[in-house]
Amino acid sequence: MNRFLPWGLLSLVSLVFLSVFVAYPILGVLLRSFLGETGGFSLNGFLIFLTKGQYLEALFNSVLLGVTVTFTCSVVGVFLAFIVARYEIPFGSIIFLLPLSILIIPELISAQSWIMVLGNNGLVTNLFKAIGIPFPRFYGWLGLIYVMTLTFYVHIFLAALAALQGFDHNLEEAGLSLGTTPLKTYFKVVFPAIMPAVLSAGLIVFTLVVGNFAISITLGQRVPLLSVMTYRSFISELGGNPTMQSTLATVSILLVVAVLFLQKRYISKRNYQMVAGRTPPRKKLKGWKSFLASGGAGLIIVLSLLPALVVLIGSFTYSRGPVMYWGEFTLSNYARIWDFNMGVIFNSLKFASLASALGVIFATLVSYLLVKKRNVLSTSLDYLLLLPLTISGTVLGIALAHGFNSGPLVLTGTAGLMVLAMMLRRLPFGVRNAASNLHSISDSIEEASVSLGVPPVRTVFNVVLPLMAPGIAAAAILTWVTTVAELSASVVIYQAGQETLPIQIFRLISSDLMARASAFGVINMLIILVPVFFGIKVMKVKLFSS
Amino acid sequence: MTELNLKNIKKSYGDFDVLKDINRSIPHGTFFTLLGPSGCGKTTLLRVVAGFVSPSSGAVHFGQQDVTHTAPHLREIGMVFQDYALFPDKSVFDNVAYGLRARKKSERDIRNKVPEYLEKVGLEGFGHRLPAEMSGGQRQRVALARALIVEPRVLLMDEPLSNLDASLRVQMRDVIRSLQLETNTTTIFVTHDQEEALAMSDQIAVMKDGRIDQCGAPDDVYRNPQTAYVSSFVGSANLLPARYLGQEENGIDTYEVNGTRVSGRTMSKADDGRYLMVARPENLGIRKFSGPAGAGELNGHIQTLQFQGYRTSFHVVLENGADVYVETFGETTGHATARGDEVTISFNEKCLFVPEASR
Questions:
Q1: Quick one: B164 and B21 in the same domain?
Q2: Among A104, A139, B30, B248, fewest CB within 10 Å belongs to which?
Q3: What is the complex's ipTM, to 2 decimals?
Q4: Are B29 and B185 in contact (CB under 8 A)?
C-alpha cells in the first residue's frame, strides 16, 4: 500500500526501537522481581521487602520526603509567583534567571555547594562553631528538605506564575463586587483557579523527589531512601542475585505509576477553561509589606543562585584533603583537571552530543508521526513513550544494564549504552515539546505544498521542518543541558574510562574533596551555560515557551 | 480542457457514510459551488477531488484521465484554504513561486510570472513581504495567486472567505470570480454561505447528509427549490403545513393552508400526501386588517418589525399562532407600520409546494 509507506514503515521502526530499548528492559526488571533463587516464580523478593524493616522504612521515608518537599515547594513557589505576578519588586527583572537556574545548576552541584556552606566542614557551620553556637546537623532530613525545596520549587513557581498571569482579573473584581473582602477573594476565587496547575506541578515535584538520586545520596546518609537503596543494592549485588534490586525498582515504578494515575484520574479533570482575560496591573507596595514581599522574594532568588557562586569560589580555593582554606586562592584544582582528567570532559561532550543529536532526531520524527500521520501503531507508540516517565534514572540504568548484558544484543559496558540511557531519559519531554510545536502548524500548510506538486516527504523537509526549527533548537538545547548533567542512570552503567563530569563530581564529593569537585562543577556549568546563552541571545530560541 | 467527472463516489468512516453516491459532471470552466451546513460532506467531497481523501468506492475523472488513484501532488490542482495556508517563513514571492519551483521552471520564468500574478490579485510590489505582515484579505489574495500560477486543471477552494470580515468578503468574491473567468479555470468552491454561493456560481450543488439534494444555476435553485430543505437553506422561506385539495380547471394545484385555499406549483409529489407551502418573505403581501380574510389570505398581528431603509421586515404571528416573515421594498406607506397592528397576509401564486418529508 503506497499510502502507508513511508510513514507506516517509520512508525514501525520507531515502535521496534522503543520496544527493544524501553519496554523490553523495563519488563525485564518487573519479571525479575518475581524470580526466585532457583529461577522459578517466587514472591520472595516482595516478602523480604515487606518483612525486613529497612525496606519498608525506606519506602515510607521516600513518600514522606516526597510529600514534605512537595508541600514546602508549593508554599515557596506559590508565594514567589504571587509576588512576581502582582507586585512591583525592585529586582523583578532578574526573575527570569530562576527557570535558568534549574537548568544551569545541576542538582548534584546544588547539593555539593550547600554541603560546602552548611555541612560538617561548611563555611557557616564553622562560623557558628567559632562563636560557640551549636549548628544543627545538616545531613539527613534537614538537608534533604532544604536542598530539594530550593532545587524543585521552580517547577511550581513557573506553573503558578503561568496560571496567575492567565487568570482573568475580571473574575477577581466580580468577587469583590459581590461583597467579599480582598483577602477572602484571594482564597475563594484566585487560589481555587490556580490550584489544578499547582497540583499538577506538585505531582511532578513528588516524582522527582521520590526518584531523586544525586541529592538523596549526598545528603541522606542517615535516612534510608528507596532510590539510594536501589542503587546500593545494584552496586553490591552486581553479578549476584538480581531479585532484590528488581523488587526495589518495581516498587518505585509502582509508586510513580500510582502518582501518574492519580494525576490522570483526579487532577487533569479539574483543569478550568479560563477565558483569556486581562491581567491585573502590578501594584506598588509600601512599608513593611514591601519589605516582606521583596525581602522574601529576594531571599529565595539569592538562595537559588548562590550554589553557582559558592562552587565558583570553591573551585579557586586552596584545599588539603577535605579541609578548605577559604580566602587562599589557587589554580591548582583546574591544573589537575588539565593534567589528568581532560578525558572526563571529552566523555561528557561526546556522550551528550550524541545523545542530544539522536534524541532530537528521534523526537522530531516520532512527534511528526504521532501528530500528523496517525495510524494503527500510533496508540502503542503513545504508551511506549510514557514508559520512561515512570522510571527514575537509577531504575533505567539498572534495567538497561541487565537487559543488555547477555543475549543477542550485548551493550553493557559500551559507550552506546551510556548514550542510550541519556537519550531515553529526556525523550518523552523532547517528543512532547516537538508535538506541541507541530500542533500549532496547520495541516493545510502541508496540503498546500502537496497540492502545488511537491511530494509528501519532500513537503516535510520544505515546509514543516523550517517551521519546527525553533522548537527543534530549543529541544536540542534542553536535551543537551539535561544529558550533560545526567548522573543517576549513567552512574549505574558506566565502566572505567567512561566517567562523565557528574560522575567525577559525585565521586569527589563522596571522598569529601570539595575544591576539586568545584572545579569540575564550574566546567560542567560552563558546558551547560554556553549553548543556553548562545540559543537565547544569538538564535533567539524561546526555551520556556511550552 | 478539463471536464470534471464524479462517478458513484461513496465514502464511509466505519458505519458512518459521509458521502452517499455522488454523481456529477462539471463542464470545463464552470464555477461549481458545494453549498451546505457543516457535516454535510462538502469538504470531504472537495478533498476526494484533491486526492487527500480516497473514496470508498467510485471514481474521479479529470477529462479523460481517471485520477482516483493518483497521488494529490500529481493531480495538477490548485487549492485555496480557509486559513490561507501560506508558508509563514517564506516571502510572498517565494510562496507564489513555490508551485513553479516544484515544476522545475527556470528562475527567469519565475521572475516574470510571479509579478504578473501578483498584479492580477492586486498585490504588485508586495513580493518581499512575509505573510505575517499582511492582512487577511491580502493573504487570501496571495493564496489565490499561488494556486492559479501553476495553471491548475481544477481549482479547489475550501471556504476561502470565512475568515474574512463581511465587507472584505464581498470584495474578495469579485476578485475570485473575475480571475476564475479570466483564466477559465474549472473551480469547485465549498461554502456554507448561501449568499456567497448565489453571487458567485455558475452551478450550485446543495448538499445534505452526504447527498446532493439539488443542483442547478443559482436563480433556478432559488426560484425552483425541489425540497423544503433547499428552499430554506438557499434564501429564507416560510414553511407552512399544507393539504392537497386538487387541481383547478387551468391545471394549477390547490392546497389548504391554515384553513384558507392557496394555489401554486407542486415541485415534487409527496408519497404520504403531506406537503409544506414554501413562501419567500418578499413574495407575500401585507396590508392593514380590513375585515375577514378572503381566499389566499390569513389574518394576524405584527410581533416586531425592522425598518432597514430600502426594505422593511415584518414578523407576523397568525391567528393560529404560526410565525410568518414578510419583507416589503420601497415605500411602506399604506402598510401597517406599528407593532401590534392587525394585518392581513396574502399568498400569491408564486408559492410552491414541496413534500413535508423533504425538510
A1: yes
A2: B248
A3: 0.86
A4: yes
